[in-house]
Design brief:
The protein is mainly α. 72% of the residues lie in helices and 7% in strands. The chain is globular and about 65 Å long.
């Protein structure tokens, strides 16, 4: 839990350094979540400087895993007699970084991929593509973890897999709502 807090503090420090204001810190089943404010008066500025906002969001998303990688590197070079459980610290931080960099929205990797696509292709395609990338990634991870479970007989991986499916299903619902909103804003047909 402490590692997840340090991870989120990386997001927080990066967001504050980029001039964003903290909205909330939430405790979730797998750790913490940092949210920043979106002020209504900033929307015109965001439209004019859309790529700048996307780049800031990429930096914030990458800051959390970067903190974990940095801690793992520091622990690797520290003497064994100074750091108790050195291997555990390295392993836990690297696993947290790798997990968060998976291209599954709303994990950090999914946020990074979405913002990159948004810069290149726009908002609607970004949500569509990240939704599809998330689905495919979760399916691939399901196949891989199924094989791992059969080989090593460790069902603890099912907890993580269940959480990834939960994120994917939740993201699918949010994706459909966002598509309706984007269609309505652009004057398209909206199905209710």
């Amino acid at each position: 839990m402490r590692l997840a807090l340090v991870h989120e503090l990386g997001h927080l420090v990066c967001g504050i350094c980029l001039g964003l204001k903290l909205k909330s810190i939430k405790i979730t089943p797998v750790g913490f979540q940092i949210l920043f404010k979106n002020n209504i008066q900033d929307y015109n500025i965001k439209i004019q400087k859309g790529n700048e906002i996307c780049i800031k969001k990429i930096a914030i998303a990458f800051a959390g895993p970067l903190v974990n990688i940095f801690i793992a590197i520091i622990a690797f070079f520290m003497p064994e007699n100074i750091v108790a459980q050195k291997e555990t610290i390295i392993y836990a931080n690297l696993m947290l970084a790798i997990f968060n960099l998976l291209p599954i929205y709303p994990l950090d990797g999914g946020r990074i991929v979405k913002e990159i696509i948004m810069i290149k292709d726009g908002t609607k395609l970004a949500y569509e593509k990240i939704n599809n990338i998330s689905k495919v990634t979760v399916i691939i991870i399901t196949i891989i973890t199924s094989i791992i479970i059969l080989k090593i007989h460790n069902i603890a991986i099912l907890i993580i897999l269940t959480y990834l499916w939960y994120l994917n299903i939740k993201n699918e619902k949010e994706y459909k709502v966002k598509c309706r909103i984007i269609s309505a804003v652009k004057g398209g047909h909206v199905d209710i």
